[in-house]
Specification:
The protein is of the alpha/beta class. It is built from 3 helices and 8 strands, in the order H-E-E-E-E-H-E-H-E-E-E. A hairpin with a 2-residue loop joins strand 2 and strand 3.
């Protein structure tokens, strides 16, 4: 007589607990994820077109404050000349003028901390004392300069955090920043 062997039947897998876990994890992970982080830095674009004539005081020339940013430091320019409240150092003919605010190391600035931000803010505060009505500053960055240096320069030129008013707020220097289109090379 032949013996019939019964093979055990495969049991159905119970996937309900795994599906419950996935159903709970997906919304939790979506809520915890940060897809886009936006930050806004106020800036003004340079004007396009011919300059609009503005009536000015005949005895006071406009400031036209500009900050030239390079890897050697920051040069403060205004009214078509280099501004330096302490007096510009003498330059030998044929040599390049040193920046108004050189790097702390005295050579080339390699990172954000090499720039002397406190000295730049101090010089801008002295200029603000002479031109209290001016609120614009033009940044002229080198084409190979890091973006964080430009942002830190904007922060340093907008307010003097070391000089607090009676109400505890920092002194406003040049709040309207324009980034120039033509970069230095």
């Amino acid at each position: 007589m032949a013996i019939k062997r019964h093979l055990p039947e495969a049991e159905d897998l119970n996937l309900v607990p795994v599906m419950n876990l996935v159903t709970i994890l997906i919304p939790f992970l979506l809520m915890a994820a940060e897809f886009v982080s936006l930050a806004v830095i106020d800036s003004t674009l340079p004007a396009i077109g011919p300059p609009v004539p503005v009536e000015e005081e005949p005895d006071k020339k406009p400031l036209n404050l500009s900050l030239a940013l390079t890897h050697e430091g920051v040069t403060v320019l205004g009214a078509d000349a280099v501004l330096n409240p302490a007096g510009a150092p003498p330059v030998v003919e044929g040599e390049k003028r040193p920046p108004t605010v050189p790097c702390k190391s005295g050579g080339r600035c390699t990172n954000l901390e090499d720039y002397d931000w406190a000295e730049l803010t101090r010089i801008l505060a002295l200029i603000k004392d002479e031109y209290p009505d001016d609120e614009n500053v033009i940044l002229v960055p080198d084409s190979k300069l890091k973006y964080e240096v430009i942002v830190k320069t904007m922060d340093s030129s907008r307010e003097d955090k070391s000089n607090r008013g009676p109400d505890g707020s920092s002194r406003v220097l040049f709040p309207f920043v324009v980034i120039a289109g033509g970069a230095l090379n």
